Give the backbone structure.
Amino acid sequence: VTEFWRRWHMSLGTFFRDYVYIPLGGSRCSFLRSMFNTFVVWALTGLWHGASWNFVIWGLWFFVFLMIERLFLKRILENVPVLSNIYLIVVVMLGWVIFRFTNLELGMTLVKSLFGLNGNPLSDFLVSIEFDSHIYLLIVSVIAATPLARILRFQVERRICGNRALYSIWQIIFYSVIPVVLLLLSTASLVGDSYNPFIYFQF
């Protein structure tokens, strides 16, 4: 979670670090004071998203895990990358449920549904249709979540680094063509969906 929040919404994180966390004393103080400073930052991060209890709880949800990691969990997870990834996915996905539902009771109903605790099946016809419709995106996402793409890139660059012309063409493809293609595919995907509101319009 610590690493996730270094990379997610960096402008917001930088703002709260520079204008709230550091003025309060940051981490250059006792552990309890540092914990309090972090608590204030995450309570305000929640309120920044909206004046509703679910946003405050969402902020404090991440505060709890950041503190647990600072105490001992981060050292354990660094030694077990697979467990680290699974742990992060569970924490972040449950966090988004808290973030989404202003009605906390309804949010808890959804959490139960995720684990099949409401008497509903874990899969049905609608889930099957959604899965089939997005199978290619899922495959690409799984590959992108592994070091495979990076390894292939390094292998290609290692083989062609002696050929300056070929290496220049590869650089153009990698840094110009591929990003443009990805942008076009992403835009086409968004246009193809019927309803895609900008998330921050609701706050």
Remarks:
- The chain has a mean pLDDT of 86.
- DSSP finds ten helices and no strands in the chain.
- The radius of gyration is 21 Å.
- The CA atoms of residues 42 and 50 lie 13 Å apart.
